[in-house]
Design goal:
6-stranded mixed sheet, Metallo-beta-lactamase, Chain A, Alpha-Beta Plaits, 289 residues, 7-stranded mixed sheet, globular, alpha+beta, 19 strands
Length: 289
């Protein structure tokens, strides 16, 4: 719960504000870029939301914030409930962003993939009753795919609730010691014709990506879209091995995908040919830097 006595001085005046407990995870800036911006080491309100769409987005950011740093001077319970009800938020057919980001994962995004042969949870949000009920309504969870050791959050609680199989690479498995499926090595694993697991070490030794239907690439902290450069970017902090990070990224050129769905940074949807061009641009920038 945000505390108005801790309201950051760099918020503009008005109803919404960010307090000094902010961990600058970027969640609010992804969900409500018209309202929130990075300011020094924090996010803050640079412009109060105007109109129904922007206000709804700001309330979504308030709900998703992993540390409860966003507040309102005059809250609206109906609008708050609408924002809660919007999660999981559909991004594309059967692909959802969960919201309720977890402080345990430094505010990383998590996703829900609905599939007739069993649903997937990609990384873990906070364990909250609203999401449990939503996942139950959508058919439960068969697999919990953990992209790396940083973003396991409440995966164990969701696994116990749904009898789900947790998937993690052996190099990061200490973060989820009860995981049922431990991956080894660097070879791509074809779970079935629609699902491929691609090891992408670099950010951590055990980082893995999930490619679904040659369209959706769930990348964890390995790679995301950087709004400042208007292009893809690789992990820039807490990098285990930068050269291995670049080499594992180059391997993604062998795969076709249209969506990048990261733990941190923006989500992006582009035609597959354009996405490959952006991936090559990223690799070229890394080589020239």
């Amino acid at each position: 719960m945000a505390n108005k006595s801790k309201r950051l001085a760099n918020n503009v005046g008005g109803n919404f504000y960010v307090d000094s407990t902010c961990i600058n995870c970027d969640t609010c800036r992804q969900l409500a870029p018209a309202t929130f911006a990075e300011n020094d080491d924090f996010s803050s309100v640079y412009r109060q939301p105007v109109g129904e769409v922007e206000v709804h987005a700001a309330y979504r950011a308030l709900i998703a914030c992993p540390v409860g740093s966003i507040g309102t001077l005059q809250g609206d319970k109906a609008l708050m409930q609408q924002a809660i009800a919007s999660f999981p938020l559909e991004l594309d057919t059967h692909i959802y962003y969960n919201g309720f980001n977890s402080e345990k994962s430094f505010g990383a995004n998590s996703y829900f993939l609905q599939h007739p042969d069993g649903n997937w949870l990609i990384d873990s949000p906070r364990y909250v009753r609203h999401l449990v009920t939503a996942f139950e309504r959508m058919g439960g969870i068969k697999y919990i795919f953990l992209t790396h050791e940083d973003d396991v959050a409440d995966a164990g609680r969701y696994a116990a609730q749904f009898g789900a199989t947790r998937i993690i690479h052996s190099a990061d498995a200490d973060a989820e010691p009860g995981a049922e499926w431990i991956l080894e090595g660097l070879d791509t694993i074809e779970v079935d014709p629609e699902f491929r697991i691609i090891p992408v070490p670099g950010h951590t030794q055990g980082s893995i990506a999930l490619l679904y239907a040659d369209r959706y690439l769930f990348t964890g902290d390995h790679m995301g879209w950087d709004r400042d450069v208007n292009g893809l970017r690789l992990a820039t902090v807490y990098v285990w091995n930068e050269e291995i990070l670049r080499r594992s990224t180059a391997r993604l050129l062998d795969h076709r995908f249209e969506w990048v769905l990261p733990g941190h940074a923006d989500r992006m949807h582009l035609p597959a040919d354009r996405m490959k061009q952006e991936l090559q641009r990223l690799l070229d920038r890394r080589l020239s830097s």
